[in-house]
Amino acid sequence: MADLASRITKPEGAEAETAPAQETTGTVEDAQTDGAGQILGGSGLQDVNYDVEVSLNEIQRDQQNPLGSAHTFQELGLPNEVLNGLMAMSFQKPSKVQEKALPLMLADPPMNMIAQSQSGTGKTAAFVTTILSRIDFTKPEQPQALVLAPSRELARQIQGVVQTIGQFCGNLVVEAAIPGNIARDSRVKASVVTGTPGTVMDLIRRRQFDVSQLKVLVIDEADNMLDLQGLGEQCARVKNMLPPTIQILLFSATFPDVVLRYATNFAPQANQIKLKVQELTVRGISQMFMDCPSEVEKYSILCSLYGLMNIGSSIIFVKTRESASEIQKRMEADGHKVTALHGAFEGSSRDALLDEFRQGRSKVLITTNVLARGIDVSSVSMVINYDVPMKGPGEREADPETYLHRIGRTGRFGRVGVSITFIYDKKSYEALQYIAAKYDIDLIRLVPDDWDNTEKKVQRVIKSSRAQAGFNPSART
Amino acid sequence: MADSSPAPRRSAQWSSPDQTRFSDFLSDDRNSELNHKEALAKARAEHDRVRDEAVRVIRLHEHQLELQRLREQELHVLAAQRKEEERLLREKKLRDEEQRLRDLEAQSIPKLPPKPPRPPLQEAAAPQPIVNGAGPVPKPATAVEHPGIASTAVPFAPLPTPSAPQVNGHASKVTETAPGLTPTAPSPFSKSTSAVSNPFTQLTPGPAVNGSTTAAPAQEVKPAIPSAPIQPLVAQGDRYAEIHKNLKQLRAYLLEQTKSNMALKTRMGDMRREIRKSLGQLTGGKGANKQQLERIKGLLSEALSGQVPSALVDPSDYTVDKREPVEGAVHNAPQLPSLFLYLLNALAKGIINQFINECGAAPRNADPVGVIAAQMFSMKDFHWRGKSLIDILMAKFRIVCPVVFGYRGSEKTEQGRARLGWKKEGGAWITEQQHIDRMTGLGVGYASLALRDFSRSPNTNPWPPSRYWTTMASIVNTPPAEISNTQCVVLKSMIQLYEEKFIHLYGSAAIVALRRALVEFPGKAPNNTPGVGGLQVVAQMYKRDLGLDLN
């Protein structure tokens, strides 16, 4: 599993980021132009609107059945237990992605689906809902659904979501097939299994995992899987060992050609769903940078940031373990409860540290890149790039993709988030410039000399991006 | 979340090695299959024994639960009888009151002239056209409550709806003339609240509470002004809106002072940021927040002591009640340093923002914030004339979450949304999800603050649980047609996570209240909104997790 960790720390597939999924796959279902949002009644009430594009496979298109999108969870005809679980999580109504995707995923007979959707859009809840509606709860120890995710953290997170939404389903057993979790001589006794591809593959080969009755296979973050050497291939091998009738749901944040080819191959005859305007996801996150006079002053400036706005939890990304420890020391002296998480920790101790942060026992998480992707802690309201993300030999090149994934840890589900990147010399300045230019981000400059002014500026920025947050596709309207 | 089962043990556990075993252990064949099997058999036997014992205990427990349930059911029936009787009585009362209200309406009451603003604040007051962050909330007439509120304060009276539309007009006039100050305010308001605050400040758990609820209001029919200064929900709400306005002026006034007062300028911003940072650092766990508590205390004391010079202002601009000097109070003077009040304001603001920004996403994080809030506002050093200055915090609550003060409105109209505290940003309403998020955080925040147990504290509770009860009653007694999703969301979030504290404080009365809130209230709602469903789900979770069957 150490190898898994190290693979995650270096997202390599630079080619995967090139095309932000603007290339259409042709058909736009005309009936699907968005008419939602106005159901609130009362004229003049604004509501969020953005488009979700749907293209249907041959069979689905032939059917007369006018494929609707669901405005309430009730309309979907979900089992009561699942509905209750969604309500217990305070879901009010389906997000845009869920509105379109759920009717497709729930349709009978089951059909494959490929969806472009980032975490933080309600995607996980969508496929978990689907899984729970398809499971036969009289067979709690018979694996019936399998979710593959690129990291153990994500697999465990999904396991948690299944348990939460399924809390009213009497006989639900969920197991995480991640390294170190299932003993060699025992079998996988759970109706839902969430895991990483390598471990799942081993379990099936060793006949610990009975796949004969699997009904649903979910691949989460397919683009990320393809980035990490071998994971995409492992997924394919897993799939080949599964019943041919299985329903395959494949999710990916971006759809560059390589992913698309993989996806269409992997999930033949699939309906497709994509967000039309992808880069909107980072709207609603106030992006700023702090112009530090020197590297040493970064420490004290960091501590001052926490007085500028009301922070729930925050994540600080750093380059080295050493600076992680140093910052931890400083911040603890200042009264913060801090968790430092980096490659020095493995397996279950990583899980424990992350849980500490997730449950709010500590509110600052300092980490190297391990967490840049996928992890969802909803109360994170600030992300700090203590070091500008770099890549390549000698860390000479700016790494825009990692930047995007990092700041995506905040502003989840349409909440307001703040990201602040520290620069202190020419190199870091230029790297950030490059990133900003690439994504056409208007970064706000902060200076650490007059905190009264800086505070005012920060408050103003937050306010204005909160107004924009309404157009964040991840916002549940 | 945790892994569902630990990895099976490889070695058997030996409960107590006897002599022979011990030598076996050293012998060469200790790894023999026979040995192994023997150990396994032992382990299995032990496992069975433990399991049997566990099964026995759980049976016993179930039996007790069943007994308890039966007992509770009996209580429920008795309570229901009493309530029925009360309802009849009350319906009659209400009719009489309404009649009187109309009579009073017929006579016109001369309005009081608006209170002249305090001298030092006058010049700073001018450039504040926007009333609060929520944009132009229509203040007096529209923000005034429906008539139903008169009876809302009565806990769980089954609300004979005073449906006559013209009564609406009456109510608004009444409150206009009585912004929390005039003790001659028409009776129904003060009457009903006093009825509430009475039985429930005595925190005796048990059915007795129920009994006294019904008794007390029945006697207190007369428009007599209750001696207790607790004022009716809605009229008080309006005073809070005033306080909120005054606080804005205070902020401007402080800013004005910094222009000529360097010492203040250098320190004020840092103090404010320190408070904000401390609030963000709070976590659960006993003693985890000592440093933060001390820091905030230190800052407030620093401001009070005059180390940082600031002009003096009259605190009564920021209190609901008029206060006279009280013997033994730490601060009796007619004025306090403006910086102190400013920092209290910053603290209040920080608390509210923490609720909004953090607790919507992570409701569990509200508790430490509520603890600090109750603690800071209960400290005698920070009282004025013997009483807490918590009205500063409540004024903010009144603006951001009017529902806890009994306000209602329809989410489908502009005015309704404004009345519900639905925020506007850049001229447009924030999205429903954002609104729900805020309300969730504020609801749980309100509970974290209002359900504190001060029985072992030398200080008095600045916002005692009776307030929580009143709030719950005001929501639960909403006429079905006026129930909004916002109310449901607030109600749910102020109940969930706090059921244990609530039941601890109110005993079986709390169970009855929970049934009202989680079963009957959603049951009478005409639309099955997500909020309504959310309440019902909470009831199911209690049944499953706590064995508490509310149906």
Automatic annotation (TrEMBL), chain A:
PROSITE patterns: DEAD_ATP_HELICASE, HELICASE_ATP_BIND_1, HELICASE_CTER, Q_MOTIF. InterPro entries: DEAD/DEAH_box_helicase_dom, Helicase_ATP-bd, Helicase_C-like, P-loop_NTPase, RNA-helicase_DEAD-box_CS, RNA_helicase_DEAD_Q_motif. It comes from Pseudomassariella vexata. It is found in: Nucleus membrane; Nucleus, Nuclear pore complex. The lineage of its organism: Eukaryota, Fungi, Dikarya, Ascomycota, Pezizomycotina. SUPFAM superfamilies: P-loop containing nucleoside triphosphate hydrolases (SSF52540). A motif (Q motif) lies at residues 71-99. Its main location: nucleus. It catalyses: ATP + H2O = ADP + phosphate + H(+). Associates with the nuclear pore complex. It is a peripheral membrane protein. This is RNA helicase. Residues 284-462 form the Helicase C-terminal domain. Residues 16-27 have a biased composition (Low complexity). Belongs to the DEAD box helicase family. DDX19/DBP5 subfamily. Residues 71-99 form the DEAD-box RNA helicase Q domain.
From TrEMBL, chain B:
Gene3D superfamilies: GLE1-like (1.25.40.510). One of its GO terms (biological process) is poly(A)+ mRNA export from nucleus. One of its GO terms (molecular function) is translation initiation factor binding. Residues 1-50, 101-128, 154-219 are annotated as: Disordered. GO terms for cellular component: cytoplasm; nuclear pore cytoplasmic filaments. Keywords: mRNA transport, Nuclear pore complex, Nucleus, Protein transport, Translocation, Transport. InterPro entries: GLE1, GLE1-like_sf. Pfam families: GLE1. Its main location: nucleus. It is found in: Nucleus, Nuclear pore complex. Residues 12-22, 187-216 have a biased composition (Polar residues). Residues 111-120 have a biased composition (Pro residues). It comes from the Eukaryota. Residues 27-50 have a biased composition (Basic and acidic residues). Belongs to the GLE1 family. This is mRNA export factor GLE1. The lineage of its organism: Eukaryota, Fungi, Dikarya, Ascomycota, Pezizomycotina.
